[in-house]
Amino acid sequence: MMKSIAGKLASVAMGATAWLATAPLTVAYAVKVNDLPGGPAVNQLNLHPPVTKIAADQAWLHWFMLIVCSVIFVAVFAVMFYSIWKHRKSVGHKAATFHESVTVEIVWTVIPFIIVILMALPATKVIVAMKDTTNADLTIKATGMQWKWGYDYINGEGEGIGFLSALDSEHRALSNAGGPKADAPIDNYLLKVDNPLVVPVDKKIRIITTANDVIHAFMVPSFGIKQDAIPGFVRDTWFRAEKIGDYYGQCAELCGKEHAYMPIHVRVVSAENYSKWVGEEMKKIAAKADDPARVWALDEMVARGEKVYSANCQACHQANGKGAGPIKPLDGAAVVLDADKSRTISVLLNGQNNGAMPAWKQLSDTDIAAVITYTKNHWSNKTDQIVQPADVQSARK
Amino acid sequence: MSAVLDPHGHTHDDHHDHHAPTGWRRWVYATNHKDIGTLYLLFAFTMLMVGGVLALLIRAELFQPGLQLVNPELFNQLTTMHGLIMVFGAIMPGFVGFANWMIPLQIGASDMAFARMNNFSFWLLIPAGLMIMGSFFMPGGAPAAGWTLYAPLTLQMGPSMDVAIFALHILGASSIMGSINIIVTILNMRAPGMTLMKMPMFAWTWLITAYLLIAVMPVLAGAITMTLTDRHFGTSFFNPAAGGDPVMYQHIFWFFGHPEVYIMILPAFGIISQVVPAFARKRLFGYTSMVYATSSIAILSFVVWAHHMFTTGMPVTGQLFFMYATMLIAVPTAVKIFNWIATMWQGSMTFETPMLFAVGFIFVFTMGGFTGLILAMAPIDIQLQDTYYVVAHFHYVLVAGSLYAMFAGVYYWMPKWTGVMYNETRGKIHFWWSLIAFNITFFPMHFLGLAGMPRRYADYPMQFADFNALASVGGFAFGIAQVYFFFFIVLPCMMGKGEKAGQKPWEGAEGLEWQIPSPAPFHTFENPPKLDASASRIVG
Q: I need a labelling partner for B187 at 20 to 30 A (CA). Which of A55, A161, A356, B87 fits?
């Protein structure tokens, strides 16, 4: 009911206000630029059309507050203007002498108190719903940085995907050049990014925010979310988009000179399209990783292995490969020199001596193959044996 | 022969032995509350102009999408310095100016309690103001972290940040001394018979404001000192890279910042409570409840600060508490509005310029009050936090609130200060011009905020263009109105041009300031006056 009243009021009041406000100034822009669905509309007068339950609740609350406040405002100032009209000296009104009434004071203290409580009650429910970030289908970390967003899919379908999202550089250049020309308007001016955040429709998405440098804020008005991204801390918010489409927001906390130039673009897609997108992204990630089928040359493998060794092994086995105390030497060790590569591979994958030598299976096949090759061909060890990633891969089974 | 420019115009001749300093010494060595009040008011107006120029640069840049005049670095400096200068340079010193001029006159005191400290607290403003303005010319430009100076952005700022912090320390010290002076004056120097509950509302609101200032200025000093040591001395209170907490800065800042909001509005309530009864020719309705309402607002102001921080990610209970507490402030504020309207009810009203500004204040300030109530609702605030809706809201309460009240006060007391009447036609032009321009500037900002335009943006999507253009046009009109105000209304009065004002130029005005000649003599109430039962008239 409130919505239908609100809707009617909206069309009448807002139409009139919009005309009044912009008629004299409907300059070049409004004529040419179009509404951006999911982003701002031309001369938009109210909140974005809601795409989540929370945003719909916020829009309802806003109408509720606007109507209640307007009614009170009109009522109170009707009294004031009536008085201004009737109780003027120029119409011969003589001043009364009353100047206090405890009864009246109590009445107009208690009534606003009750109104305020009634206003706050429906808001309470929404707050509790807003803050419930449990049972998310998909968790994404949004990292604010000067001046772009980083998105990492950390839980749910697409886990492991991560990319940066920055404003289209042409738009940034255009801004410096004085902005888009009135005869060549750009509907998504300052809102176009290279890599939009992609999420499935009708799924609970939990956004974890943090930042690298200063405070930013992740805001998408259509979803009714705005959450500061605070360096050194994690905060969260959530949304469940009910409509497929593109939705836009901008950074909402002053973060330095390019504050106006780090937009947010969320693309809500169907479940199938989301799976397809995840598949493509996963392929891209795989393409970036080392190909386990690749056959390496000895010197390449040793060079790579040296890095892996110094990062992971050197602390115990020492740079000279002699070990120390209970740490076994690698230089000249029978296991290392053995022509049967599977023995060293097994030590690396499973560990040895009850974990005194830990398992290193978290390293990639290529890294394990490289470090073994290195130990087999360094110091006094000159076996000319190469361990290929494929050997490690098959040993993992 | 105005008290503002000529101290020797007064007719008292019982002070031949008292050689009041003349020329520059009169102002630099000033210990007279009226002279110091004048200095404060002129300083505040100068800062209003400086801050206004910055605001107009902002509005000029935002007239169209794209960057035309300034780069984003300078834009952020402009918004930051506009905020700092208006809050600490214009509004706060402005009200202290009113306090200096009017509180001793209203309570029948001969001067402020600590005359030399009074001089000191004014003259501290000058170096602080110069440092703040000079920061624009330092390497890297002025601070650009917003007037709230949020960490860790402040840790990235250039050397001007330190200058601004030092300037704020000085301004804080000045405010604290001013507040001590006001409290001691009011509590110790009232004329016999002027009990606290007979004191004019303006003195009451300033008494409460002064306590707020003493309570929160040190909190601000603490926050910015921690910022300073984070920047230079290896501490990491707010630096997350070393375990500091940037949100803690916000808590400390807003523990100062929210009472600060009331510091800037309570004296305005006081002025309105003087002006409305005078032109309604009827006593202020509900004096006692006004005093209690003001005190309640002051006390509640300490427990609502985190409503500025709903988007930082507070727990549910935190959001609920701060939402309910904030909405409660609407109750005493509503009581004040009702009392003013009840004062007007059945009065015999005339609408000279002070009354126009007072009625304009009540009307437009209430709009800002309602948007405040809307913003207090946490779910709506999530949408509107850091958008132009907030900008619209606080300009409705700070410009149409504090500044309009000061205009009302200037017009109301100008005859007492200068001995001449301002030009009534010009005053009315100033009022209507300001009112219309103000609303053209700030009303469209509500729409921009609802549509999601974030604040402190140097450039914006094209859909926001028309409302921004409208706001810019209004902004320039508003700015020019204030130049008109100074050159065509204030300056003629200060030069003594205009119709001579009588001792009590307003038929319905009450209070001791109207019991002395106009312009107010250099020294007043050297001997405590004998007051009637209402403590608003001198008997014998």
A: B87
